Each structure stands twice: as C-alpha cells, then as structure tokens.
Amino acid sequence: MSNKLNHSMSLATPDALNITTKQKIALGLGLIGLFILTLALFNTSFPNKGLFLTFALGLIVIGTIFYSREAYLNKLEGIKNDGVWFKSISSRGFWGWSVGIILTAFYIVLYFYPQYLGLGKDGVANTGLISLFDPLSQLLSGRNASQWFVYGTLYTIAILAFGYKFILKYRHNRYQQIRTVSVMFFQLGFAFLIPEFMYIMNNDLPYYDLKSIWPLNYYIFDEWSVKAFLSNGNAGLALILFGVLSIFVITPILTYKYGKRWYCSWVCGCGGLAETAGDSFRHLSSKKLSAWKLERWIIHLVLVFSVVMTTAMIYTYLGYKSNDFWLTRGVFISLVIGFLTIIFAGVMIFKRNELGRDAKYGAIGFFLVITLLLIMHFTGTTDQLFYIKSGNLRSAYGIYIGSIFSGVIGTGFYPILGSRAWCRFGCPMAAVLGFQQRLFSKFRITTNGGQCISCGNCSNSCEMGIDVRHYAQKGENIVRSSCVGCGICAAVCPRGVLKLENDSMKGRINPNEILLGNDVDLRKLVNEN
C-alpha cells in the first residue's frame, strides 16, 4: 500500500486488510514491550527494574501511537470501520480466540492465583511481574506493588494509548474526542493517581475510586471499609457521605439531565476500556432478539443479587440492640424494604403506562427482593444468613460479580462477545442507570427516517446490541435502558440520520410516529410542533 493519502472509499479494497511497513515496525515495538513483561512474569532478574519497566511500558505506548497514526492519518476523516469482518482478530478468527483465551487466563490468575504473578505474602518480597512494578509503586505511594497496582497500571496504559487511537479514528466527530479525553482523565486521575496519593496522605484510609458508585463499588459498605472510614475522622466520614449522596442524589440528577451516558460513556473505567481498547470489537455484540431478551433477564437478576447481597453484607455486622448503635438489624431491614416499596409504588403510579408489559417483570423483581430480605431477617442468626456463614456471604458478591463476571468474562471475552458484554449483561450500575434513563431522563437519540438508506452502519457499530437501523427506518426516537449514549451510531451514519439530544420529556417516546415517504403531512406535523 502506498503511503500517500488514500481517497478510496471501497469496502472491498485489499488495502483494508494490509498493514504498512511502518505499522509492522510499530507492532514490533509493542511486542518487544510485551516480551519484557513476559520475561518478568517468568522471574527474569533485571539489573534495573525501574528502567526496564519504563522501557516496556514506553514501547507499548509508542508502538500503539505510531500504529494508530499510520492507520488513520493517511486516510480521509470519517467512517473507518472497513475490513473489521475480514480480520482474524476482529471476526472471531484464530487471533481473536487466541487474544480472548490469553486475556481470560490473565484475569483468572490475577483474581485467584496472584502468587503466580509474583505477589509476596506475609512480608516476603515480591517476585516476577509484580516486582517489576515495585519502583513505580514506591514512587507514587511509597509501598511495594500489589497485583491490583499492576492491573491498574496496565489498565490505565491501555485506556490512554488506545484512547489516542480512538481520537484519531473519530477525529471527524468532536463529541467522540471530548468524551474520550474525559474517560482518559477520569481513569488516570480518579481511578489511578488520586487513590495512590490518598494513601500517602493517610495510609489508614482504604482504597477508594471516587468515580466508582454503588452497586459497582460494592466494597465501600463492607465492615472493614466502614470501620476504616469512621476511624479516620471527618475525612473518612466525608467519603462515606459522598458515596451515599452519589447513589441517591448525584446519580439521579445527572441521569435525568444527560441520560446514563454521563457515567457509562464519560466517567466509568469499564466503559472507558470498552470504548478504547475494545473499540475494534464493538461490532461483535449480538443484535439478535434472543440476546436482547437474555440481556434483560440477566442484568436485572444481577441487580437483584446486588441489592440482596449488599443488604446482607451490611446486615451481618449490625447488632440486635440499640444500645450499641441506633441502626439495628431490624431498623435497617425496615428502612430498605420501605425505600424499595416507595420506589415501586411511585413507578407503578406514575410510569405504569410507559412500562407496559415490563411492569409485570418489575413487580416480580420487587417481590423477589422483599421475599429474600424477609427470609434473611427471620431465619438469620449471629453467624449465618440464608444458612451460609456470614464471612462467606460477604465475599460472594465480590467473587461472582466483581471478579468472574466483570473481569474474566466482561473483559476477557472482548474478541468473542464484543466490548460491552459486562455493561450489557452484568453491570448492576448499568441496570440502575438504565432504569432511571428509561423512566425520567431527558436524553434520547432522535432519528430522521426519511433520510435513512438502511446501510446498517449504526447497528453494526452498536456495542450494546441495539438494532439502531430498526428505529431509524421508522423515524422513531431511541429510548432504551441499555443505550450508553456513546454516539458512535451517529458518528458512523453517512446521512446524519441520528442525533443525540437532551429535550423535554414530552414526546420523548414516539413509537407510533413513522416518518417514511409520504406517510405523513409534513406541513401539518411542523405546524403542530
């Protein structure tokens, strides 16, 4: 392929499958960096760990940047999803499955067997890959690295490097550039640097990613975490209050004004990785009706599980008598049930018509939660809840949802299930925000059906499995609980059919308005509005 500007817009050109010499060099640099990390994994002793770590991470970043510049700056601005179904890595081919298996294996070792990464326990020095990151950890927080520090560093590097690639790919769209810079900023600052600096200022405070909100942030309400916060005076109390306000005040207000995109596409680290490193796999998300039905059941069952497990976790360390603390087990269960009842009653009274048949499933979920909470309260003992030891119950949510689903499956399966499998099927935070977005958000994606040419770019690029073209062909607004408002559907539309908007609640859902051909009197419609 020539290095000159390629004006071809053909989807069938062989250029879509080839890479240039410069891209091959960039790939080689990145692979050298990965090779250094692999050598560390197998306990290779480096004379200067700080230098070799800098060298490894630097080569990975430089390789990604050079590859991206060569891939996109030699093409015209605009849609560049050509060839994705012809590449092995992005079409569930050999390289796609290979990357998926490697990522999944890494997550399994990270979560369950960190000793194989070189984690030292009981005062024993780190070895292997983790020891290579000790100099950076010492620089930022004055302590040796853990497997989570290694993971956080690699996670942040991936979002920054592939975020730059994403910005180049969608440089024709200002919205995409701004939101990508946003997720890069929040990951680097709030998820990576600030917790490390907080440890320097007060090493008794537990790790706290300020942008991580319950139910995504499940550990803030664990007993050891609450005690650590309360033992640190006003600073710890302020962090707990901020966490509670984030759930009940900040989140509903921002979702009302901007939809769930304010979090899922602008702030969240899971979404940040999916949008940057996972961008090449977004088209793999299934658009089948069966997948959508499965999604609705699984994600809401995970939310039910999260509510029950969080309540049970707090319940385990509360007392029976008000002499110790006014918030007894009985008072706590009553408050939780009362709050859930108020929400359920409000939705049924004011939003029953909008929910339609979904109201039945919502009622089933509500009564399931209430039943489980009552069973827990009346059958629980000091040491057991649901006939399970309290200690085991506390860790259940973290293991099955926080580790296996979000990490092993959610990220490891990028090349197989698409980049937002966790966000779509498992994230309880996405379920909460989606519930709010569907019922009382001003956000919607408007469509102009008269301009749609049914090219399918929008549906192909939707990482949440929404058949956007179906809405666009009818001129119907897209108001879906699962939509994260990433805006890629609008960015890849060649006709400007789709537009992300925040408007009044009136007319937000318009399932019966079909603007195709001469089906409506446009002058009459304009005069009515």
Main pleated sheet: 2 strands, antiparallel
Number of strands: 4
Q: What shape does the CA trace take?
A: globular
Q: Report how far the terminal alpha carbons are from each other.
A: 52 Å
Low confidence ranges: none
Order of helices and strands: HHHHHHHHHHHHHHHEEHHHHEHHHEH
What does it look like?
The N and C termini lie far apart (52 Å). Helix 2 packs parallel to helix 6 (147-169), helix 12 packs antiparallel against helix 16 (390-409) and helix 13 (329-350) packs antiparallel against helix 15 (358-379). The radius of gyration is 25 Å and the shape is globular. The protein is built from 23 helices and four strands. The chain is mainly alpha-helical and 529 residues long. The chain has helices at residues 21-41, 49-72, 94-112, 128-132, 134-141, 147-169, 174-201, 223-230, 233-258, 261-264, 269-276, 289-316, 329-350, 352-355, 358-379, 390-409, 414-417, 421-425, 428-440, 457-461, 468-474, 488-491, 522-528, and strands at 384-385, 388-389, 443-447, 498-502. It has a two-stranded antiparallel sheet. Strands 3-4 form a two-stranded antiparallel ribbon.
